[in-house]
Amino acid sequence: MESTVSEAVGLDAFICEIDGFVGTLIDQLAPPPTTSPPAVTVSPPALVAPPTSSPPGSSPPGSSVPGPPDGDDGSRRLFDLLYNPTRVFDEPRLDAVLVAAVGLRNLADHVLASATAAAERAGVPTRRHLRSGAQLLTGLGVVPGTAYRLARVGRAAHELPAVTQAQRLAGMGAELADAIGVGVAHIGARVDLDEQQRADVVATLMVQTTPGEVAKKARAIAIARTPDNPASPVPVAEDEALNEMTLTQGADGCIVGSFDLDVVAGEELHAALDALCRPVPGPDGSVDPRPVGKRRADGFAQVIRAYLSGYERPTSGGVLPHVSLIRPATTPSWGSAVEQSVDQLGFTGPVTKKTATLISCDATVDTILVDGAGAPLDVGRMQRLFSPRIRKALIARDGGCAFPGCGRPASWCDAHHIQAWEADGVTSVDNGVMLCRLFRYRNNRHYAESAVMPILRESVLVSGFSVEL
């Protein structure tokens, strides 16, 4: 009985110590009560004269590094270090804080995961009419994704002692521990593992450095250890029958898509997008300003355009796939059916006049003139579009994008009218120029109306280029 009471008192005292440490940390992070948080400023290193003797914490003789900041007699707090660090002098302290904070975070994750699993074993969620221990964490302000991850880690702790020990020693965070648990479960669902095999698998997964690498290694182990059997079901990741893709149009007209592809189709998609998603420096050597999401979207659009510009592709409704631009023959009068009198694309519907004018130069677009009732008047005009032979001549002359300093390859470019087709421009080598999409769409302005077109027109006229068509 005495030992039980002693252990209970010791546990309560330790919990109080944890609470006291949290309070101390909060105090250390709080700004001084009478001052606002200081701005993060860095003073230039001061030349420190070599002292006759180097007291602890000072700069070594002959070094040109700043000494300890004024008032560094133990009165500095963590707030001062984080918001007003001193060059060089505070570097060891910042390293120590980072190491300690990472270890503290890993330990905190382990305590949260273990406490959640213990609460489930003690029936706490059931008594509080909750479905799982994760809801205990969400009730304390933990976001659902993190809460359910911690709950999974806590439940798997007794099955993965090596992972639990690494967490207990502050050497592993919850994200990596959860990935290892999910990976072991993935392998165990496909092959039977004895204790030694499970330990070997865990050891292999623990040397991976990211959750993504853990998942990839787990899939590789599962495939390698699964016996070849033609009658066995196709793995989910390789079953193309499960592929799905959705395309929906939002209220603003934007297209929102999602897809779930097998690994082969996903690999092909990655291969197609890889080169197109890389940052492209500007003509002046500046860094590509597009974020990764924009680069990926641009690359995806380029893949689609490259497909539509080909000739060996499936037909759609008996004709090669193309973009149809439906344009009204006349401008409607006020009070008429305005919504039926705007330019429209075949799949995605209405577009602005600016966009319709811009894409009308594209060789993969057919313009269909319709009357007020929507009946076709003129389904495209072949003389408006640049023929393959004219395009070859433009490629031979321009070599790629003709915008000064760009130089993107011809496969990224469209043949573009210098004098717009709508402004009585003709489809010819002299009135054509190769431009990539980045500069065609720059600032959402048609280049026939921008300042660069006169420059390109002049360069074309003075080039003296001719080609035998």
Automatic annotation (TrEMBL):
It comes from the Bacteria. SMART domains: HNHc. Residues 34-76 are annotated as: Disordered. Residues 389-444 form the HNH nuclease domain. Residues 37-51 have a biased composition (Low complexity). This is HNH nuclease domain-containing protein.
